[in-house]
């Protein structure tokens, strides 16, 4: 089923605030996830793939 976007102008003030709080909570969890990612690439392990071989 296709859900159409809701017109925020037709919502009451309480409903708008509730939607805003829900959206902020989703964005917060996404930011926390992005901060957890770390770079653990070991360059020496893959050095062979970008050095040229002699023909």
From TrEMBL:
GO molecular function: structural constituent of ribosome
Pfam families hit by this protein: Mitoc_L55
InterPro entries per the UniProt record, alphabetical: Ribosomal_mL55
One Gene Ontology cellular component: mitochondrial large ribosomal subunit
Name recorded for this polypeptide: MRPL55 isoform 12
Species the sequence originates in: Pan troglodytes
